[in-house]
Amino acid sequence: PARITPVLPKGIGIKIHSSMLPARPEPYVRAMVPANTPLPVAEQRIEVATILNDQESARIEIFEQAGAVPSENLSRNRIIFDGEVVGLPPGPAGTLLVLKVSLDVAGRLTVRATHGPTGAELEVPAFIHGVVDESELQEQRGNIARLMVV
């Protein structure tokens, strides 16, 4: 019998505000997990850093690529997670934050964060933006209707 392996349908990435030289004037999406990665994905590690001295929190926005080809352009991606790492200890700009992103076989996304210098676990509460509107719901139903198991 054929074995069906669930995969991530579209790649995901994280919104980055550049503070490295050469600096990028606009935020961009850095790829984290490519499309067609087998699920589950266990703690995909990505390192980011604070951009201000004594920064108390850091916004974490994770995007799904909107088209077939990955893009760093924000407008070509769709936000799927909007959260904030809170409880950062005082420190200089450039302090390491380690994010661990996991996806289960049902597509549920989990984001964990640790403070790089101390290894302390940090909270990552998420913001709620709303629900799928009627046109998005119809599009998703159409996508599901076209799926075939081979």
Sequence-ordered SSE layout with sheet pairings:
Layout (H helix, E strand, L loop, with lengths): L11 E5 L11 E6 L7 E9 L7 E9 L11 E10 L9 E8 L5 E7 L5 E2 L11 H12 L5
Antiparallel strand pairs: 1-2, 1-4, 3-6, 4-5, 6-7, 7-8
Number of helices: 1
Low-pLDDT stretches are: none
Arithmetic mean of pLDDT: 85
The count of DSSP E runs of length 2 or more, i.e. the number of strands, is 8
Main structural class: mainly beta
Task: Please give the order of strands in the largest beta sheet.
Answer: 2-1-4-5
Give me the Rg, rounded. 17 Å
Q: Largest sheet, described in full?
A: 4 strands, antiparallel
SSE order, one letter for each helix or strand: EEEEEEEEH
Described by the principal axes of the CA atoms, the overall outline is globular
End-to-end span in angstroms?
11 Å
Percent of residues in helices comes to: under 10%
Strand coverage percent: 35-45%
Describe this structure in words.
The chain is globular. It has one helix and eight strands. It has one helix at 134-145; strands at residues 12-16, 28-33, 41-49, 57-65, 77-86, 96-103, 109-115, 121-122. 8% of the residues lie in helices and 37% in strands. With 150 residues, the protein is mostly beta strands. The model has no long low-confidence stretch (mean pLDDT 85). The longest helix is centred in the last third of the chain and has 12 residues, at 134-145. A four-stranded antiparallel sheet has the order 2-1-4-5, with no helix packed on it. The protein has a four-stranded antiparallel sheet with strand order 3-6-7-8, with no helix packed on it.
